[in-house]
Amino acid sequence: QCKEAGFTGIDYSIEVTKNNPQWIKQSHELGLTVNVWTVNDTENLQWCIDHGVDFITTDNPTEAIRLLEK
Q1: Are 36 and 16 in contact (CB under 8 A)?
Q2: Contact at 8 Å (CB) between 32 and 38?
Q3: What is the CA radius of gyration of the chain?
Q4: What are the φ/ψ torsions at residue 9 (nearest 5 degrees)?
Q5: DSSP assignment, residue 8?
Q6: Where are the strands (E) in 1-64, listed by range?
Q7: Residues in a beta bridge with 20
Q8: β-pair partners for 34
Q9: Distance CA 38, CA 36 (A)
Q10: For residue 62, what are the CA distances in angstroms to 3, 5, 40, 58, 68?
Q11: Which helix (H) or strand (E) holds 70?
């Protein structure tokens, strides 16, 4: 529906995204980006990284960068 509506990506909270992880792969297959918000704890930041989320909205960018650099 997002692709058909002309959207370039999806944008959901961490809770919604973790309950629907298949949306990440489906979005990427359609050429859509995935943003997840607001992800502040290490466990959820790592989950987003591990699942290939394109953009992470966070109040903890230092931790996100540290995890990405691993």
Answers
A1: no
A2: no
A3: 12
A4: -175, 180
A5: S
A6: 9-13, 33-37, 55-56
A7: none
A8: 10
A9: 7
A10: 33, 35, 10, 10, 10
A11: none
pTM exceeds cut of 0.85:
yes
Tokens of 69: 């650099």
What's the full length of the chain, in residues? 70
| 3-state SS assignment for residue 62 | helix
Closest CA to 58 of 38, 43, 33, 36: 38
Span 2-32, pLDDT tens digits:
999 999 999 999 999 999 999 999 999 999 9
Token digits of residue 26 = 């489906």
Question: Are 49 and 55 contacting, i.e. CB atoms less than 8 angstroms apart?
Answer: no
From 67, 12, 64, select the one nearest 34 (Cα to Cα): 12
